[in-house]
Each structure stands twice: as C-alpha cells, then as structure tokens.
Amino acid sequence: MRERNLMRLLITICVFAILFSVKIFAANEMYRAVNFSPPDVPREFRAAWITCVASNADWPSQSGLSVEQQKAELISLLDRAAQLHLNAIIFQVRPASDAMYQSSIEPWSEYLTGTQGRAPEPFYDPLAFAIQEAHKRGLELHAWFNPFRAWHPLSKSSVAANHVTKLHPEWICKYGEQTWLNPGNPEVRDYVLRVVMDVVKRYDVDGVQFDDYFYPYYDTEAGDFPDLETWKQFGLPRHLTIDDWRRANVDQFIYDVSKNVKVAKPWVKFGVSPFGIWRQGYPPQIKGLDAYATIYADSRLWLASGWVDYLAPQLYWATDDTPHSFSVLLNWWAQQNVKGRQVFAAMSAANVPDKFSANEIARQIQTVRTQKGASGEIYFHLKNLIDDGSLGGIVSRENFQMALPPPISGNSFPLPQPAISVTTASTNLVVRWEMPTNQLLKSWLLQCRGTNNLWTTQILPSSQTGCTFSTWKPDIICVSAMDRFGNLGSPAVMKKIPPPPPRTGKAGQIIYMR
Prior knowledge:
TIM Barrel; 9-stranded parallel β-sheet; 22 strands
C-alpha cells in the first residue's frame, strides 16, 4: 500500500513537472530574438537648475528643514523633472565657498541646517543622495559651482571657523556688498580647482558647471575691483594691462579645470553658462553689457578652443527684443562652435510672466530645435516650471517625447549588444538583460512597443538589469546599452511571436509544436 501511494505521488509530481515545463517552454517561445531597428530617440539636452540660495531657492525650500523633509522635497523636484521629460539637473553644490555635500575642504552650507559648518542630523550627504535619486529617474546630475564668490550678501549664518575668509583673509577682496576670492592670485585658482576636483573624484557626477560669476558685475558705487596690488605682482611683470590680465586669469582657470577633469574622468562633462552677450556689436544689432570687458569673461575663446564640452549662454531675453534677441544671439553662438562642442540655450523661466509670456518659452524651444549647431536648453530654474502651471504645461507639451542627452564629442567606442531573456512568472512578463562587464556602462535604454503601435521609452540606471510587465505586455522589447560618454550601442530585440496552433493527438492529447 505504501509503495502504491509513493508511486502515485511520483506520478503526480512528474505530471506537474511536465505541465510546468510545457508552460515555461510555451511562454519562452512567445518572444524570440529578431533583427529590428526601434525608432531613433531624439538627442537634446533638457535641463533645469536647482538653486539653493536666498529667495531663488528651489531646494531646500527653507534652511533648517529636517533631513526627511529635505529628502522628500528633493525627490518631488526630481519626479517633476522626469515628468517634464528633462534629462539633466544642474545642482548647486557650492554657493559661496561652502558645501552642499560632505567636504574636508569647506564647511557645510548654511542652507541645509541654518548654520554654516553644521552637518545634517541625522547625517546624510545631499549630493550623494541627489545623484542616486537623479540616476534612478534617468536624469544626469551636473555639479554647479560658484567658483570665486566667498560670501553671499544675503547670508544669515555666522562664518564657520574653517571658512576660507577666516583661513585665508589675504585671498579675499571686498567689493561693495560682495565678498570675493581674488581670481588673480594663483593660490586662489589652485584652491578652487582642488575643491572642484574633490567632487569630481569622489562623486559620480555627470558634469561640472560654472555660471557667469568669475569677476563680479560692476558696481558703480564700489568702482574698480580692488586687485591693483595683485596685478602689480602677477600681471605687470608679464606686460599685461589689468583688463587683459584679469581675462587671462579666468582663461587659465577654465583651461586648468578642463584639463584636470578630463584626466581624472574623461566622461564627466565640463560646461559653462556665461552671460549671453560676449561683446556689444556681436552680432551688429546686439547691445548691452559687455561681458568681455566688464566681467572679464572671454567665453567665445573657451568654446572656440574646445576647452568646454558645452557652453550654455544665458539668453534671458525675448526673441523680438532687437538689441538682445534670443534667436539672433543663439545663431551667433552656434557659429562660434568651430570645435564641434555643444551649444545649449539657457532660458529664463523666471522671467515668466513678468517680462514675457510662457508662449515665448515655447517659441524659444522651437528656435533651438531649428537652429543648426544648437542641441538643447537649460531652464532657470526648476521651481518656475513647477509653480507656473501654464509654463509647465508648455514644456510638457513641447517635450512630449523623451530625449537622450547628446554624446560627448570625440569619444566614440563600440558597445556590445546586451543578452536578453523573456519569461513569465504567474501573470507577469519578466525581462532580464546583461552584458559583459564594461566599466564605461552608464545606463540602459528600454524601448517597448505596445498596442496601437505606440512606443514607450525609459532610461534605466546601469544597476537595473530587468523589469516586470504586469498590466500590459509589449509585442516588441528593445534594450540598448549607453556608455558614460553618451554613446548608444545596438539594441537587443525580442518580438512576440504568436504560439503555433496545437496539434491534437490520440484521446485529445495536446502536442506543442516547435
């Protein structure tokens, strides 16, 4: 009796095993590898600044929030950026010789806890957290530094003991309400370079960016910037006028940052967002502040010399504003790009609705997309896209299709095709992929075709090697690898194949055909 029961149990187990294997076999046969080219994904840089200073703050909304509140606010901002189909965030990490991250060189920023030098409690590293959460959402994160601002005039905290103004008062220039590191002092430039490279080496940032602040904007009451003695020490012996010397200081700094970033991590993008007018009269109808002569920024040189991976001139004027026309300036900047770098238009979302309507932003987006040599835009700043429903709606409408950031020029490497498998688990469709170890792997591009021939596109972090479909089952699944330079490999494609009709054998037996 016991042997008979054991035999029945073994037969039952075998039957279930056969049925289970048939189910898996049939499910795996539903998707087969095919040669197929999915739709091309547009290449366009779409970014927004996240500011943390004074009344402009995107994040934190106020200093002294709890760690959980800070994290929740940042996640909300990144979620909204992803919903708007942006693909990059420019995150302010060093507002005024302080740090929105853990640093052994400079004190914690007051914008986190309300007190400069005080770490978040319980401890976390905001930059590391921002990078992790941005990458989860397919967003690049560029670390935004204000290189020579030593103190913000609206700061409320006392100065930390390890702040540069206390450690090196000989490096400091007071200029009106501004407190500035002296760019003419080689020790200052070396110091700021060390701060930048500390972040590049320790954090998985996708880029480094400076804005328009090198020398401060001219203050009529303050007069000339107080660096005459420094010029006598370092500029006069080289027979440079004080203006040429100041420009040379900034040029040398830009070159040094570019060179050091590329040596350390050649895939990290280096960009600058300078004032939108290089010089008056370039092109002829343009008038306004002369950045070359007033704040000593020869930004055309940096682009034309190929020292930057991208230049994003701040074109904060309307298209029909003849002396500062957005479209005219963008066209001029694109013509200066003789080294084939990237030119992005920095747009002022903050000017809506006071200086122009949200429709002007829509017009500018279309201008960028039709301007030869321009390949994206950066919005100042993210909070404006979120708070202004009309503006956010326009950006969402214009960005109805997701885009990949443009690749870094001059760095093209062949990427292997991923290996992909499709199985079922209960009612779910499980997709897995992998590829040989590649140190330059950055992310995956997942493209799926569903009903009505509609495609969905996602950028997934390199750590994610699978996904599950439960509510709908795509008929084509494509996975491509993207490296840290932005190059996209050929896709591995699985296509849904209708199962063959079963052939009925004797006594109603079902035979599955290969």
